[in-house]
Every structure is written in C-alpha cells, then in structure tokens.
Design a protein that fits this description.
Strand order of the largest sheet: 2-1-3-12-11-4-5-10-8-9
Bound molecules: glycylglycylglycine
Number of helices: 11
Structural class: alpha/beta
Largest sheet: 10 strands, mixed
Shape: globular
Radius of gyration: 19 Å
Order of helices and strands: EHEHHEHEEEEHEHEHEHEEHHH
C-alpha cells in the first residue's frame, strides 16, 4: 500500500529540512507526498497565510508533516492544529550520546495542551495604551490531555507524570487545569505530582533526572520544551507530534531560523525525528525505530551541522542518516 502524506514546508529553514525528511521517509516506506503551501511567502502572494486547500488537505489526511512558520505562525500553526483536531503536542527532549549537551542525562517528554490557554487567539487592542488577552482553560480540554497522558505513561517505562502549572497565581485558569488533570490521573490510578512552572524551569536545569513526563498548559509547554532543547544541544534536535483523535500533524519544535535560512546548513534532525514519530503513528514501528537508530548513530559519530559543532550541510547530514538505514 502507498501511504499518502501531506507536506507543508512553510518558511525559512522549513523549506530546507522538509525535503530531507521526505528523502528519509521515501527510503523506508512506499509513499506519495501531497505538497501544500502555507506561511509568510504565501501570504505575501495571495493575502492569506493558510490557503483553504492546505487546511482541507491537513483536515482529511491521516498525517501531515509541517516545517516552520515565521511571522504568520499564529495564522498557520494554530489553524493547522485545529485542522487535525489536535488536543496534545508531544515534545520529547532527549540528550544523545555524541552531542555536546549541557545536561547529557536529560530524557524528558512534554505533553502540552494544544488548543487553548493564551494561544486561543482572544487578543484585543482596546486603546492606544491598552491591549488585552483572554486566557481560556476548559475542564474538557484539560481532561482530554490528562486522559492522553494517563495512556501515554501506562507502559513500564514511566511512573506517572508531573503537572507544571502556575495555579498559585492563575488560580482560576491553571487551578482548573490542575484540578482536572489530577482528577483524571486519580480516576486512572496514575501517580501524579505537581510543580510550579517557574520552579520547574530552575529544577530541570539543575537536575533533569527529577522529571520524566511533564503535562503543561499551552504556553508553558511551548516555553519549557524550548528550555529543555537548551539542555540537550539545541532546537535542531527536538521533534513534535500534534495528535488528534483521527489524524496528526508532525513538526520540528524549531521555527524558521531566518539567521541561517537559505544557506543549506540547517540541522535536519528535528524534522527527521518528527518523521519517525509520524511513521510510528501510521503503524510503521520497525521503520520508525530504524530512522531513530540511524539518527542516533549519526549523532554519536557522524557528520553534523554547525549548530552541533560540525561543518556538514543539511543534505550531507541527511545522506549519512540514510546510509545507516
Ligand atoms: N515548526 C514549528 C514552528 O514553526 N514553530 C514556531 C512557533 O512559533 N511555534 C509556536 C508553537 O509551537 O505554538
């Protein structure tokens, strides 16, 4: 069977890393890619950052692989997550042997609420002096995330999860989030503990082994996973999966990296690892493991891009990964 996968390179280095991830996927499964546009350049040309056709493709495909969005991130990523009905953004942050990491013992997974919080789009400019933002938290979205988290930690590998929140200040919103998540964890007999998100930021830098799976509200998940990227060697290493009930969208955690875009030197690892998450989601477990192993082998002792201290191009690093498959 030929798998059909929608690909949306987006802007900046998205246009450089997505073709590399496609080459890796083509090396392990029979696949047809359906190309779609979104982002800053499309907005300049057409007036809209996310054409309806792109939204519809993501909303009907089993899986979509997305690169990066820059200035139009809010007009592209948030609707795309909506298109796939995603209620959780899974962001693993793992240190690899052979990569110079601040905290080589790091092995974390962030489960980020993906539909609301301060990313729900309710912002207003009320006067020349005043802008406001409404933070939305529902029990239902918090419970959906919690149910996913309970399922995620059900294997032997994990002993429950930690909720990172700020319910001592945002009593109503993060209080609701915390209470809903704790209640679902208790119903499922899943061990759960909690930490204030600012304290988490310090503690995870000092000793990441204190944590394993971290469940957090939307903005906290975005920021804290980027912080964890700093512990493992940079944003070029973090993949993510936006999972919904029937479909999912996979994307590197990094953005468009305008400082290096166009030079062919972007690290393809985050996108290739996102593709490995996609393969697993689609049921290609062996192929997904093979891609993860090949990435691990190259990171351990192979050519690497400048962000990891090497001088390989994006294509050369991908070639090395493909040679290990
Ligand atoms: N590849 C993901 C990307 O373009 N990230 C940039 C960004 O601003 N992301 C915000 C988010 O993940 O909510």
């Amino acid at each position: 069977m030929t798998e059909e996968i929608v690909v949306i390179p987006g802007d900046g280095i998205g246009k450089e890393v997505i073709p590399e991830a496609k080459r890796v996927v083509e090396s392990v499964i029979d696949v047809t890619f359906i190309e779609a546009d979104a982002g800053d350049a499309v907005k300049e040309e057409t007036g809209t950052a996310l054409p309806q056709e792109t939204y519809d493709l993501a909303a009907s495909a089993d899986a979509t692989l997305f690169g990066a969005a820059g200035e139009t991130a809010a007009d592209v990523i948030l609707p795309l997550r909506d298109a796939v009905g995603s209620f959780v953004n899974i962001r693993p942050a793992k240190a690899y042997p052979g990569v110079d990491a601040l905290r080589p013992e790091t092995d974390l997974v962030f489960l980020r609420e993906n539909t609301e919080g301060v990313y729900s789009g309710h912002e207003d400019r009320l006067s020349d002096d005043l802008s406001t933002l409404t933070r939305v938290v529902t029990t239902s979205a918090s419970e959906a995330l919690a149910a996913f988290a309970c399922d995620y930690v059900s294997g032997e590998e994990h002993d429950g999860f930690t909720i990172a929140h700020k319910a001592n200040v945002m009593r109503e919103t993060d209080g609701r989030f915390r209470d809903a998540v704790v209640s679902v964890a208790k119903e499922n007999d899943v061990p759960v503990d909690e930490v204030l998100m600012d304290a988490f930021a310090t503690r995870v830098c000092l000793d990441p082994t204190q944590f394993d799976v971290i469940v957090c509200p939307n903005l906290a998940g975005d920021v804290l996973s980027d912080l964890a990227a700093g512990l493992v060697g940079g944003l070029g290493l973090l993949p993510s999966a936006n999972v919904g009930t029937d479909r999912a969208l996979f994307e590197p955690v990094h953005g468009t990296a305008p400082d290096i875009a166009g030079n062919g030197i972007a690290n393809p690892t985050a996108t290739i690892l996102s593709a490995a998450m996609m393969l697993e989601y689609l049921g290609y477990e062996t192929e997904s493991n093979a891609v993860n192993d090949a990435v691990e082998a190259v990171l351990s002792d192979g050519p690497r891009t400048g962000d990891l201290g090497g001088n390989a191009t994006t294509t050369e690093m991908t070639d090395a990964i493909i040679n290990h498959l």
